[in-house]
Write a structure and sequence with these properties.
The complex is a heterodimer.
Chain A (H helix, E strand, L loop, with lengths): L7 H26 E3 L6 E4 L18 H32 L5 H13 L6 H11 L5 H25 L3 H9 L4 H9 L4 H16 L3 H6 L8 H11 L5 H31 L5
Antiparallel strand pairs in A: 1-2
Helix pairs in contact in A: 1-11, 2-5, 2-8, 3-5, 5-8, 6-7, 8-11, 10-11
Chain B lengths: L2 E10 L2 E11 L4 E5 L6 H9 L6 E6 L2 E2 L10 E4 L11 H11 L4 H14 L15 H13 L5 E5 L7 H18 L2 E6 L2 H7 L2 E6 L2 E6 L1 H6 L4 H6 L6 E3 L15 E4 L4 E2 L6 E10 L3 E7 L5 E7 L9 E6 L5 E3 L7
Parallel strand pairs in B: 3-8, 3-9, 6-7, 7-8
Antiparallel strand pairs in B: 1-2, 1-4, 4-5, 9-10, 11-12, 12-18, 13-17, 14-15, 14-17, 15-16
Classes of the chains: A mainly alpha, B alpha+beta.
Keywords (chain A): Cell membrane, Membrane, Sugar transport, Transmembrane, Transmembrane helix, Transport
Pfam family, one (chain A): BPD_transp_1
Subcellular location (chain A): Cell membrane
Chain lengths: 275, 334
């Protein structure tokens, strides 16, 4: 392979900027598994003690890690499923159907996508209280889903736009109903988009912090992000090694998902299928 | 199946795109909807297959009025310009799709797809994906898919536009052969006069949302109804002169313009038409001359190659008086 530029300057710059991140990651992993004298950077022995949260209750009055993990998982999967389901249909409608106020909806999507969601949090808080959904997992899921939707719909619309409309017309000519055409002929071609939205909204739900913190502060609806926050907040003497171990546990699924699906995630920037 | 379009009108946002069009296609006939872009030919095609609603008028397939029926129930086979094959399905599944929608049983599907593959010569390609096929092969698959459920009418929307010149020639005769073997009533939409003339029994030439003339290709070429038809058909195109340019020709009084086809101008028709050669285009078998008359008007002539004439030379050629086309001030043929 021929290069019309040299590789090493790029590698050097990338290396310089990545080193701090790399060091942080290394210490995250090393500290989670080792004992250390105070003030020293060099570990003095191997231990699994920091992972004790996995098999024993840390203290009374707090939800166990497995319960919290289950909460987080439910939160992330439900959000991802609902976002994907709505984005698939809404994106199709915006891309293909000519309905009243279509332009308004398109503009609204962009505005909502760019809108800083934190500014809405007071209003959402009040609404959830009135609806009786405050401090419930369901309430947080609904809010998170609503906030994720503009992005999902917009991306899906982009994928649908790349499918030639003649394919749908051909399907209709072949005698299939509009629903069947969408399901059998169009959907397979936006499948990369579907995967990308599913994974992205799952990861986004998995790492969500502000919404559960404000809208569901009780222990019943706790997720991993708020669990970690409570961990360093409560203790008079913060146990940072424990905190790092929980962090590692929290980040593991994200890493696994990225490794498995990285090709699919790249699609979101490419967009569309090649006929 | 006989097809009748009666008083068809289509509007987009209130503006009529096609107005009051009548078209009758005999059973087993292949007719071309020919015209410049924007003349309404594709609109007509989409109205026939049900993609566009028919605003006014009726569409009859034989005795059946299908004007109000949705596409799915019209039983029309369509070949789209970009073929619109389903990229995620094999060739077999593409062709089988219309039958699967009809819930035909497996054996029947296999038999029928086999027949179609044989008809369009793609028996060996059934396991491939559309992306693995050449343009001509994709075209054949699209044809097979359109034909597989025995449609009443076959519609072809610019079927050759995406093919290179050599394939276009091949598919031209292939489509014609398949249409004749199946005996289907077919409508071909095209802006290419050569396609229309070489493939179809009759041509319906459209302009501004109306049919200007319907005739067989030869008839339409030799006997155009107005100046638009005369100038649209023919390659290289016809040239127009005034009666003053041809003083020896006894033009009728009402004649405002005379059309001269390139093949009817040349030394073989005697003398009397002098002019200066401005441009010579070599086409191998023949040369195409642009000649400036003393009045400044340009006429074209096609001559066998090897005349040795150069731009700047003056020629004294003749014309075939029997083949001149006279038009009045309203551009209607006299």
């Amino acid at each position: 392979m021929r290069h019309n530029y040299r590789n090493w300057p790029i590698l050097l710059v990338l290396g310089i900027f990545s080193t701090p991140l790399l060091i942080m990651l290394v210490f995250q992993v090393v500290d989670s598994f080792t004992l250390k004298q105070p003030g020293s950077l060099i570990p003095s022995g191997f231990t699994l003690e920091h992972f004790r949260f996995l098999w024993e209750e840390l203290d009374t009055g707090r939800a166990g890690i497995w319960r919290v993990t289950l909460n987080t998982f439910i939160f992330a999967t439900t959000t991802a499923t609902v976002v994907t389901a709505i984005a698939l249909t809404a994106g199709y409608a915006l891309s293909r159907l000519n309905f009243p106020a279509r332009g308004f909806f398109l503009a609204g999507l962009i505005v909502l996508h760019a809108f800083p969601t934190v500014t809405l949090i007071i209003a959402i808080f009040l609404i959830l209280q009135i609806l009786g959904l405050y401090d419930t997992l369901i309430g947080v899921i609904i809010v998170k889903t609503a906030l994720e939707l503009p992005f999902g719909i917009w991306i899906m619309k982009g994928f649908y736009d790349t499918v030639p409309w003649e394919i749908e017309m051909a399907g209709v000519q072949d005698g299939a109903s509009r629903l069947r055409v969408w399901w059998q002929l169009v959907l397979p071609q936006v499948q990369p988009g579907l995967m990308a939205i599913l994974i992205f909204s799952f990861l986004s739900g998995w790492s969500e912090f502000i919404l559960p913190l404000v809208l569901a502060p009780g222990s019943d609806a706790q997720v991993l992000a708020t669990y970690m926050q409570a961990l360093i907040l409560d203790d008079t003497k913060a146990d940072f090694d424990l905190f790092k171990a929980v962090g590692l546990f929290y980040a593991l699924p994200v890493v696994v998902i990225y490794v498995i699906f990285q090709n699919k995630l790249m699609n979101i920037y490419g967009g569309g299928s090649k006929g | 199946m006989q097809l009748d379009l009666i008083g068809f009108t289509k509007r987009f946002d209130g503006t009529p795109v096609v107005s009051g069009m009548d078209l009758s296609v005999a059973s087993g006939e292949m007719i071309a909807l020919l015209g410049p872009s924007g003349c309404g030919k594709s609109t007509t095609l989409f109205a026939i297959c049900g993609i566009h609603r028919i605003d006014e008028g009726r569409l009859m397939f034989g005795e059946r009025d299908v004007s109000g029926l949705p596409s799915q129930r019209r039983n029309v086979g369509v070949v789209f310009q970009n073929y619109a094959l389903y990229p995620h399905m094999s060739v077999f599944d593409n062709i089988a799709f219309p039958l699967k929608v009809q819930k035909a049983d497996k054996d029947q599907i296999r038999r029928r797809v086999g027949e179609m593959a044989e008809l369009v010569h793609i028996e060996t390609l059934l396991d491939r994906r559309p992306a693995q096929l050449s343009g001509g092969q994709q075209q054949r698959v699209a044809l097979a898919r359109a034909l597989v459920r025995n449609p009443d009418v076959l519609l072809l929307d610019e079927p050759l536009a995406n093919l290179d010149a050599k394939l276009r020639l091949e598919m031209r005769s292939e489509i014609r052969r398949i249409q004749q073997e199946t005996g289907l009533t077919a409508i071909l939409v095209t802006h290419d006069q050569v396609e229309a003339m070489s493939m179809c029994d009759r041509i319906a030439l459209m302009n501004n949302g109306r049919i200007v003339q319907i005739d067989g290709p030869t008839r339409m070429y030799r006997d155009p109804m107005d100046k638009f038809v005369a100038s649209f058909l023919g390659n290289p195109p016809i040239s127009f002169v005034t009666p003053e340019d041809l003083p020896c020709f006894g033009a009728p009084k009402a004649c405002a313009e005379i059309g001269l086809r390139p093949e009817h101008v040349g030394p073989q028709f005697g003398t009397g038409l002098t002019g200066e050669v401005r441009f010579v285009e070599t086409q191998g078998r023949e040369d195409l001359f642009d000649i400036a008359l003393p009045s400044g008007r340009m006429i074209r002539s096609v001559q066998p190659a090897g005349s040795g004439l150069r731009p700047g030379q003056t020629v004294d050629w003749g014309y075939d008086a029997a083949e001149l086309l006279c038009f009045d001030r309203q551009e209607v043929r006299l």
